[in-house]
Amino acid sequence: MLIELMENWKAYCTAENFIGIGSTRKAFRVKGYVLKVNIHPLGYQQSKNEFVIYKTMKEIGLTELFAEIYMVDELLSIQKYYHPLEMENNQTYEIDMQAHRKLIPERYKETLDLLDTKFDSFDLKDSSNYGLNAKGKLTFIDYGMSKSLYEAEWVPLAKAGILPQIHFDYCKVCGIEKELRMYGENDSDKRCYSCGKE
User: pTM for this one?
Assistant: First the structure.
């Protein structure tokens, strides 16, 4: 299946397989795999960072905390699928060591510290960056954004309205209060992804 995905990935990027979209990548699930398709060049940078991190964690025996990455190129990355954490009140939330202690795997704090000091990782506690493994413990599924990449490239693009920022507001179509993708301060199109806004 993995070879088939690598060779014919576009055929699997369908509405039925869609599972999520960020500011730089769009994700599709095919059986036990996730295709992360780059929708901006920063997505490729994030995927490359994830691959380097995964390989390093494999060398030091911490891969159980990370989704396995099978391939990365300029167009997409393929990794193992993990069930994402559910949103709370239609929004993501910050992982708290005490409040979410049942989800915290062994060596989690050590891993957070290593990601911070060795890889300059950013946004490590946002629930959207995690899935749950077979034991119901947190697994990193989105871990390629660094602080330097965020500050030097993502922030200017978001301020210019090129990359979306997430704002919690009411969608003007479905009327549900949820996370909306907003492009710069002058974006007045308050629709959610489900109602047609990418």
Answer: 0.88
